[in-house]
Amino acid sequence: MKIASIDTYDVRFPTSRELDGSDAMNPDPDYSAAYVVITADTGGQGHGFTFTIGRGNEVCRAAIEALAPLVIGQSVDDLGEFAKRLTHDSQIRWLGPEKGVVHLAAAALINAAWDLAATAAGKPVWQFLADLPPEQVVDLVDWRYLSDALGPAEALDMLHAARPGRQERIEQLRRHGYPAYTTSPGWLGYSDDKLVRLAGEAVTDGYRQIKLKVGHDLDDDIRRMRLARDTVGDGIRIAVDANQRWDVDEAVRWMTALAPYDPWWIEEPTSPDDILGHAAVRKALRPSGIRVATGEHVQNRIVFKQLLQADAVDIVQIDACRVAGVNENIAILLLAAKFGRPVCPHAGGVGLCELVQHLSMFDFVAVSGSLQDRVIEYVDHLHEHFVDPVVIRDGAYRLPEAPGFSARMRPGTLHRFAFPDGPEWA
Ligand SMILES: [Mg+2]
């Protein structure tokens, strides 16, 4: 199967009108997707996208088009080679390497290729991956720059060691789903009343963890954290997320002030590039028991490797569209398993829940084999635009069974929310 053509779309949703998604660094996001449809010579299609929060989405779309000549005419039978072509082109590599807009664009195309291949095989992506022999999984990863932490031989041993019990784990997912937590109560732009109401509803709906955005005003955060704790009680985990707002000392000071309300983790306390800074925050917060989480803006597997080597994170937060798609996320899942750190994916936005559920399910079935302290973020926005939206029940993601990557937006959505000329924006 070879790629015959690609079509791109700039799709934007006016989420800033309701302050959905508002946090300390992103007060008014318009959730958006630089979206690509690849069509194979068989007539089959694969859909993929990368996520942005509005302005600049057109730059990602242009980058996808700049990468198109590298994939037209290419086979998707070897998705390891396919992914490497996109990240190793000697001229385009100058724009990264392996970071920024070109990497987001590579993610969109690589994810689309996985949707195409899994759809053609009649399997959801998690199962398509889990059914591959460990040798083929190892070949999907670009091992360059990882050998001081993990190499293909050790990864192969890990994957073989994870094989016993996989059928039971699939059955467990089918029965109980994969645990989720919800960020819906905690947007910074919401009133106290809305926070309390949504936090209470989250517990009623079966969630064992919620998340609050913090970092704009300390007095507000102490009040909101106290309200949330009073509402959910002691048995529910409350994570907090600063979205990179602080310097290192400020992060420690701020979180020490919130510590009496028992935050489960602090997410993105500072710059995603600051490995030593995260290590310092983690060390300072150790006595309080507050964990450090990051990853949604970590640009590639090499930075994840360093965060793990430097003991800088407790929780690894992959994102389906920030690094180079499925392939690079497999590398990060393997690194996290090697260092014994749980992976709790970033999701929300538009379509991130739909994609990343497949990676966590694959991790449980075939890599880490564990659900201990693992949860996938869930945000209840914009799922109605997908052909196969995620299904949440009793605070858990149900196992996706439809073929592909759950990535396809409805044709009406691609038309209505096209920027700037679709009916929603014109
Ligand atoms: Mg976050």
From TrEMBL:
One of its GO terms (biological process) is carbohydrate catabolic process. This is L-fuconate dehydratase. Its cofactor is Mg(2+). SMART domains: MR_MLE. Gene3D superfamilies: Enolase-like C-terminal domain, Enolase-like, N-terminal domain. The keyword S-adenosyl-L-methionine does not apply. It holds the Pfam family MR_MLE_C. Its EC number is 4.2.1.68. One of its GO terms (molecular function) is L-fuconate dehydratase activity. Keywords: Lyase, Magnesium, Metal-binding.
